[in-house]
Amino acid sequence: LPISVRMEHVDAAAARAVFALLRAAGADAEILSYREPRFSRRSLVALRVHGERSLQLLHELGVLSAELLPLERPPRRVVARRCCRAAYLRGALVASGSVSAPRAAGHLELRAGGHAAAAALAAIAGEDGLRLSVAERRGSAIAYTKSKQTIRDLLVHVGAFDSALSFEEAEVMAATRERANRLTNCDEANLARLGAAARSQRQAIALLELDRLEPRLREVAELRRRHPDLSLADLGRRARPPLPKSTVANRMRRLLGI
């Protein structure tokens, strides 16, 4: 009986890419589109490969064994070189992978039919320093990572440079936003401390008889009373002659002591 390979529920874009590659290599392939008979009635895509030449080609590519059975792990000759491993992972990402949005929490996964296939993907990525974990999920298995650094490195490895740049841009924006928030919070805290200190200084000065103070202390007290919201450095700049902040602080401590 004639044998054919049928891949069902294939992503349409992935199916077109595989179809073009197989036809370019001389394989007999066809794309089938049909509607799901039950539930949400989605439009589904299947890719069918048939003919002796096509099956031999799939064997040479490491998809089928010599007995024309699907392989969970590609032969070593297929993933021996770095460029070949990158192409293999790129195919896995296009066919059954997903990546979180650049500004969301990091998550990249490559879905596989079983634990052995997912472990093979993790091992192939690990040969080039890309650490992926393996987990079981709803009757299938995944090789995944939540590290944004690993996600960027893997995207660069497989040639998805625009996507990697999107992650870089999102990280720069997040760092800039975090720094701005930190500076804003710091400024708010400084303003709160400045306001509390100025308020206590005004309350203390209100209890003093300024005419009985020595001129240097009286000048600082009058400056604080006229400018209740200025910092000590700004008060010093308004003195005549201008005073350094340390001098104003020392005189203010003496006023509070009195």
Note the gap between the termini.
Answer: 108 Å
* Secondary structural class: alpha+beta
| β-strand number | 7
Major sheet size, sense and barrel closure: 4 strands, antiparallel
Describe the overall structure.
With 258 residues, the protein is α+β, with helices and mostly antiparallel strands. Helix content is 53%, strand content 15%. It is built from nine helices and seven strands. It has helices at residues 12-24, 52-60, 82-96, 115-126, 148-157, 161-205, 215-226, 232-238, 245-257, and strands at 4-7, 28-35, 43-50, 97-99, 108-112, 133-137, 140-145. The longest helix is centred in the C-terminal third of the chain and has 45 residues, at 161-205. The model has no long low-confidence stretch (mean pLDDT 85).
